[in-house]
Specification:
2 copies of one chain form a homodimer. Chain A is built from 5 helices and 10 strands; from the N terminus they run βαββαβββαβββααβ. In chain A, strand 2 and strand 3 (59-69) form a beta hairpin. Chain A is globular. Chain A is 21% helix and 28% strand. With 257 residues, chain A is of the alpha+beta class. Chain A folds into 2 domains: 4-98, Pseudouridine synthase I, catalytic domain, N-terminal subdomain (Alpha-Beta Plaits, 2-Layer Sandwich); 110-256, Alpha-Beta Plaits (2-Layer Sandwich). The interface between A and B is medium-sized, with 19 and 19 residues. Chains A, B: Pfam families: PseudoU_synth_1. Chains A, B: Its EC number is 5.4.99.12. Chains A, B: Keywords: Isomerase, tRNA processing. Chains A, B: Belongs to the tRNA pseudouridine synthase TruA family.
Chain lengths: 257, 257
């Protein structure tokens, strides 16, 4: 039977989920989307594939998934149908018909994440699920230097959860930077790379905040890239500050960095 | 026994509360703050007084409360102590010692509220508790005209819940306007007045959106101010888009409108 492949851009508030991927210990984003598709398909199971997992509490502004349907349906109609069956914390932002060899994970050329830090002395009640609260005085020059050292092609073993199932831990980070959002009194990290390992950005942030706080020197990054030991790096920062912003399927994203 | 009066600026995310005021049917903001003060005072009950109630789901960026303590404590120390005992969705933003005749409600000269409307075709998952979703094409000229008709001193009986306990329903609205927040694809209403009746702003918004949608003409506002009948006005818009932004204790706020 011939099928049509669809690519969807998905936003979700990860607060109430165990993560993107189906797990036995709680509600997942994947499960909710598959449930919505199954309802739309009158009981037929549709498997979806995402660009990658996101952890518990992690948000997405631009997660990408693909799936095949035995029917051809207008993208906007599909979007309307699925959104009407999804819970309010997940929303399909865009639907496209794509060729059968498009693959949300394998076709991805790069990803962009941001990580938001609430700098208010007392945590902002409206940001409690959307930022990490870190109200300490920081050395921003050391922070910028540390981040610049993460850019480039490296073996990121020190910045990868030991629970990874990957063998090759070499990745290229194109952008690792931080900006102050004065209006919101936030620090916003941006990371763009050809791929990120399990917990990689959260360990980047946990380690860089230690450097910003003066607990470690920026040169610690050089040593961590050298020693390839997760236990040598800083803590894994909370998932709630992390957002998957973009998944790139065309190498041209590198031209605008 | 001599006491010291304290004035506090309070922020809260109203999502998980039945409203500001203590009620038998659920958790209130007042109850949480009084519990925190009681803990700080080693079991002594401290009654707090706010500038006014906010309904279920309504948020505050600048609610004001006062209370008396039998001790004198530095404002920043008090802030730290209370915040450390409050849940994450309530935060004391500022503490001041005030004179004994300052009263959070009776001394108030005016208030400012905003109301946020999410214009996205599909509701933004991150705004589901913080905006009203209203994705319809609107006549913004008619909306602006309707709002301007609300400004001034009027008997607002048509815009007040019949459950009010007030007798005098005349209030002065200094500002009733709406602006587009293009970056967030929101419509943001601002209302500033010398006082607002029970549900008044939510009925303003419910009625004005009907006018914006073309269900009623802007001149309907003139008629509503005339007939003094709650049933003639539009619906009470959801509390979740509403924010108490400022309470003014000095008439000088009128100079900067």
């Amino acid at each position: 039977m011939s099928t049509q492949r669809y690519k969807c851009l998905v936003q979700y508030d990860g607060t109430n989920y165990v993560g993107y991927q189906i797990q036995i210990n709680g509600k997942s984003v994947q499960e909710e989307i598959e449930k919505a598709l199954k309802k739309m398909m009158k009981g037929q199971t549709i498997k979806i594939t995402a660009s990658g997992r996101t952890d518990s509490g992690v948000h997405a502004l631009g997660q990408v998934i693909h799936f095949d349907l035995p029917i051809s349906i207008k993208p906007e109609s599909l979007r309307l149908a699925v959104n009407s069956m999804l819970p309010a914390d997940i929303s399909i932002k865009q639907v496209e018909k794509v060729v059968d060899d498009f693959h949300a994970r394998y076709s991805a050329k790069g990803k962009k994440y941001i990580y938001r830090v609430d700098l208010n002395r007392f945590a902002d009640p409206f940001k409690r699920f959307y930022t990490l609260h870190h109200p300490y005085r920081m050395n921003e020059d050391n922070l910028a230097l540390a981040l610049s050292k993460l850019e480039g092609e490296h073996d990121f073993t020190s910045f990868c959860s030991t629970r990874t199932d990957k063998e090759n831990l070499v990745r290229t980070v194109y952008v690792a930077k931080v900006e102050r959002d004065e209006a919101n009194n936030e620090l916003v990290f941006t990371f763009i790379g050809n791929g990120f390992l399990y917990n990689m950005i959260r360990i980047f942030v946990g380690t860089c905040l230690q450097i910003a706080d003066g607990l470690k020197k920026p040169e610690e990054i050089d040593r961590l890239l050298e020693v390839k030991d997760r236990n040598a790096a800083g803590p894994t920062a909370s998932g709630k500050g992390l957002y998957l912003v973009d998944v790139y399927y065309d190498e041209s994203f590198k031209e605008n960095l």
